[in-house]
Amino acid sequence: MHGARLHGFALLVAAGDAGRARQAAAEALEAGAAQAARLRHPERAAAWLRRHTLLTLRRGRLGKGLSEAVRQAALAELGVGMGAYRALGQLSLEQRAAVVASAIEGLAPIDLETIMGAPADRSRRLATDGLRRYLAAMAPTLPVGLAPAGPLARRIRAAADLALGVQDGASG
């Protein structure tokens, strides 16, 4: 039930390191199976699995020996273009996890706290700071006055607008 989405989360957070993403997601799913009775609620299970995945990704060195082209190609399968790939690369591992969980996957704030292993204010700050950095990194790649147009960019822009209190899609 959680496999494909968890792998997508891991691949984005791992910045295209498909091998590490696969390993982290597989370890989380295996550990989650042992916790099945405790993780009955799908959203709480999703958060728990992402937390386990994030902890596994923190332990290893991401991208070791991988070219940018290989990493970008892995993310292209998720619809991530070169600009978004580079913008995600500007974020820390924790910021990527917070942005992916909140802005892309739309998980609830309580789930973000679980994933980040941090209180609400710190988790929210990681997501908000990550969104700002992402948007700042994307800005130079766009013609003046245009917003990113891909599905990932639209989700991140909408989440950033919400987090920053922007009304009616007007950005500041």
Unreliable residue stretches = 167-172
Discrete helix count: 9
Portion of residues within helices:
55-70%
Approximately what portion of the residues adopt beta-strand conformation?
under 5%
How large, in whole angstroms, is the Cα Rg? Answer: 16 Å
User: Mean pLDDT, nearest integer?
Assistant: 83
Structural class: mainly alpha
Total count of domains? 1
Task: Give the terminus-to-terminus CA distance.
Answer: 39 Å
Describe the structure.
With 172 residues, this protein is an all-alpha fold. The chain has one domain. 67% of the residues lie in helices and 0% in strands. The chain is built from nine helices and no strands. It has helices at residues 3-13, 18-34, 42-59, 68-76, 82-89, 93-104, 109-116, 120-138, 151-164. Helix 1 (3-13) runs parallel beside helix 3 and helix 1 (3-13) packs across helix 6. The termini are far apart.
